[in-house]
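Render this sequence as a predicted structure.
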Amino acid sequence: MTVEGTWDLSMSTPIGKIKAVAEFRREDGLLVGTARGAGEEVPLSHVVFDGDRLTWKQSITKPIRLNLAFAVTVDGDTLTGTSKAGRLPASKVTGERRAVPAGTQN
């Protein structure tokens, strides 16, 4: 199983539902990624995929400055899990991988 690709994420937070897009890819054998949402694009760090568990960290500045830690379980083209910011309660995260248009796979 792989997590490479573009994922549409939805997070249920205390301030409402937040949508984001995460992209995962391999560079020199390492899993790396970026996330876009709320008008900013940020790099993902500490991206680890082990079995069906995917974890990563990211820092955001919008709507407020937070350091987020994600822990999700991947099942095919869907994922579910949590995002945690410091001492705040964990927020539920769900996501779906976008289909790759025919003819664009490497």
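Summary. The mean pLDDT is 92. Residues 5-95 form a domain with the Lipocalin fold (CATH 2.40.128).
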